[in-house]
Amino acid sequence: MSDVSRKSPPQLLRVLGLVFGLAVVVGGVIGSGIMRAPGEVSKAITEPWAILLAWALGGMAAMLAAMPLVEAGASVPLAGGTYSISARAFGPGTGFLNGWLTFLQYVASNAFISVVFGEYVHRLGFLTQLHAGVLGCGLILALTLLNAAGTRISGTSQSVGSAIKGGAFVVLVAILFIAPHPPPAVRVVAETAKAVGPITSIGALVTAISVIYSTYAGWDGAIYFSEEVDNPQRNVARATFWGIGLVTVLYVLVNAAALNVLPPSVLAGSTFAVGDAAGVVMGPAANIFVTAMGLFSLVAIVNLQIMAASRVPFAMARDGVAPRFLIQVAKSGTPLTSLGLVSALSLTMVIVSMILAPDTGYKWIVRIYAPWSIGAILMVCVSAIRLRLAEPDLPRPYRMPLFPWIAILATLVQATLIATLVLDDPVAGAWSGLIAVPLPVGLYLLFRGLWRRAADA
């Protein structure tokens, strides 16, 4: 056995705190989705009280799924998030599948959001001569350099960014609440709309529920930094639950503020509902304000996703299920080679989408990767049940109530969401499944073989 194989495995630096954990959850969840989603929801739900209730229930659903994840994560406070939990519960093969889903989802999301960032820059009138994908590549490179500077720097930037983002949404909510009720022209449209009851159709309601839940995506972000957060057994749980609670309150307030300006019949079908409400109150200035908010929000999300994604292959490599070179950690705490891999693949996905379809190619990315993050959460829910039964004496600083029913219910919710996505777009669902299952099996066998041969050398 070589000297390298006898060395203790590298560890990440424990230099992050509870504030960072909250910033991860709040900053990772709140994005441009909340600006668009109210229009889709209003197509299905026509009563303001029912709309607000639906958004509150969305937060409760996220809280429900968080219970098994937090129990398992507090018991296995390691880098890699959902990968480390599944690997502990079911072994390296299942862990690799979970890590693959998580890592690939982050990379694909980086590519998609970065191109949207470029579109937002164009909306503000800047650098219109450059393709949105080129601007997206620039964003990925800039944030890669920021993360390479060290964990403290990238962590602080995320905390500051999330605080500014949250503050901007609070300002927007205040502006919409202070505004008078809908102007006469809007009231005429609302009064002439036919009353169809609180729900338009079951199909539209299912779509609305899916949209709301997807808008809460990212609530599990704190778990990826368990190895770097002080007192992770308590702070990861606090960050996750408090973060979901704050986001839920903010989402309900945003919808209530938009409904204060525009009724559901006017919001329905809008692709930029909150922006439309702001436009009624602020006039032309609304476009600049809301676009700038969205731009800043996208930067914070990509920064977080690059940071979180780099922890996944690092943890997998440390366990021997990914190439050895990915375990390198800088003195500043950044897993540099893993970070480089995240950046390189994100850039590649943007460039490929630009080549395949310069105007709309990036949109296929979101249709394919949508089920992956839900699948990773589903696996964690099952892993929490497995760990409770297989290792009853494992220290559990947080224990989910009503075991195992909470975990079973959360599992069924995730499975239903995946089925809904696949049925809505079977072609994208088929590609998603092909990339998510057969491909990682071959990679897992390859990496395990290479690691064992290196260890025996």
Short structural summary:
By secondary structure, the chain is mainly alpha-helical. The chain contains 19 helices and no strands.
What key phrases describe this protein's structure?
disordered N terminus; mainly alpha
How would you characterize the overall build of this protein?
The chain has one domain (13-456): Amino acid/polyamine transporter I (Up-down Bundle), CATH 1.20.1740. By secondary structure, the protein is mainly α. It is built from 19 helices and no strands. The model is unreliable at 1-6 and 187-193 (pLDDT under 50). It has helices at residues 3-6, 18-29, 33-44, 48-75, 82-90, 92-123, 132-148, 151-178, 184-192, 202-215, 232-261, 264-267, 273-282, 285-318, 336-356, 363-390, 405-424, 426-436, 438-456.
Tally of structural domains:
1
Helical stretch tally: 19
Q: Structural class from helices and strands?
A: mainly alpha
Distance between the termini: 6 Å
Please give the radius of gyration in angstroms: 22 Å
Biggest sheet layout: none
Fill in the CATH topology: Amino acid/polyamine transporter I
> How much is the average pLDDT?
86
CATH architectural category:
Up-down Bundle
Strand portion: under 5%
Let me know the CATH homologous superfamily.
Answer: Amino acid/polyamine transporter I
Write the layout of secondary structure elements.
Layout: H1 3-6, H2 18-29, H3 33-44, H4 48-75, H5 82-90, H6 92-123, H7 132-148, H8 151-178, H9 184-192, H10 202-215, H11 232-261, H12 264-267, H13 273-282, H14 285-318, H15 336-356, H16 363-390, H17 405-424, H18 426-436, H19 438-456
Helix pairs in contact: 2-8, 2-11, 2-14, 3-10, 4-11, 4-16, 4-17, 5-6, 5-16, 6-7, 6-14, 6-15, 6-16, 7-14, 7-15, 8-11, 8-14, 11-13, 13-14, 14-15, 16-17, 16-18, 17-18
